Amino acid sequence: MNYLILLMIGLGSLWAGLKLFDDEVILITMLLVGSAFTLAGLLSSPVKLQIIIEIVLIINLFYICMECIERGDRA
């Protein structure tokens, strides 16, 4: 259950970095710290959760890529 604590700290740091701080140095620091905690939480989580998260991220990436293709001029 330690991975849940790491994930909460990481996602909270990412949210705080994006929403609360305007200074670039603090923003970049918070995003790096949040990314490190989120990565540590994902690495220590069970394999089933890692697979589910990876599938969700791949599906989201597919939809983002399809939107970019639709917006672009392919002529």
Q: Could you give a short description of this structure?
A:
With 75 residues, this protein is an all-alpha fold. The chain is built from 3 helices and no strands.
Structure notes:
With 75 residues, the protein is mainly alpha-helical. The chain has three helices and no strands. It has helices at residues 2-19, 24-43, 47-71.
Q: Features of this protein?
A:
75 residues; mainly alpha; 3 helices
Overall structural class, as computed from helix and strand content, comes to mainly alpha
Report the average pLDDT across residues.
87
The portion of residues assigned to helices is: over 70%
Number of strands: 0
Give the ordered list of helices and strands. HHH
Shape by Cα distribution: flat
Low-confidence stretches: none
N-end to C-end Cα span: 52 Å
Task: Give the quaternary arrangement of the chains.
Answer: single chain
Question: β content, as a range?
Answer: under 5%
Q: What does the main sheet amount to?
A: none
| Count of individual helical segments | 3
- Spatial extent as radius of gyration: 16 Å
List the helices and strands and how they pair.
Blueprint: H1 2-19, H2 24-43, H3 47-71
Helix pairs in contact: 1-2
